[in-house]
Amino acid sequence: MRSLLFATVVFALLPAPGRAMEAGVPSGPINVPPQVMASHCITMVSPNYPRTVGDLSEGSFVVVRVVVSRSGSVSPLRVISGPPSLQAEAMNAVRLWRYRPFVRDDEPLDVTTDVRVDFTPGKPGGMVTHPNANQAR
Hints:
The protein is built from 3 helices and 9 strands. The protein is α+β, with helices and mostly antiparallel strands. It has one domain: TonB (TolA/TonB C-terminal domain, 2-Layer Sandwich). A 4-stranded mixed beta sheet has the order 1-8-3-4. It has a 3-stranded antiparallel beta sheet with strand order 5-2-9, with no helix packed on it. A two-stranded antiparallel ribbon has the order 6-7. A hairpin with a 5-residue loop joins strand 3 and strand 4. The protein is globular and about 45 Å long. The termini are far apart. The relative contact order is 0.26.
């Protein structure tokens, strides 16, 4: 019984097949400051302002934590803060954003960052912008 328990503990601590553990290499996405990833954003889509919120005179925002993949797509994501009535539309918009890959040591990496989604009453949703179109890769 004792050897079975020992074998179970050792097996649970081994890396998954095909995933070698290297010293100093993070096993998941690394955290990158929002300011750094903002310079990597190549396509943004503005959120729809929900009709159920009404036409407020002031805008608002939602902060969404995202994983930007090596390919530049955004997934998964989760809301960090913001009005509940705007959260779903913020997530719908951010799913469509695209980034240049974050590269370290000539290797593209998955990264985690926070993005701020601004809502402005009267501004149409679904507008596509390219904030860093003039930056060289």
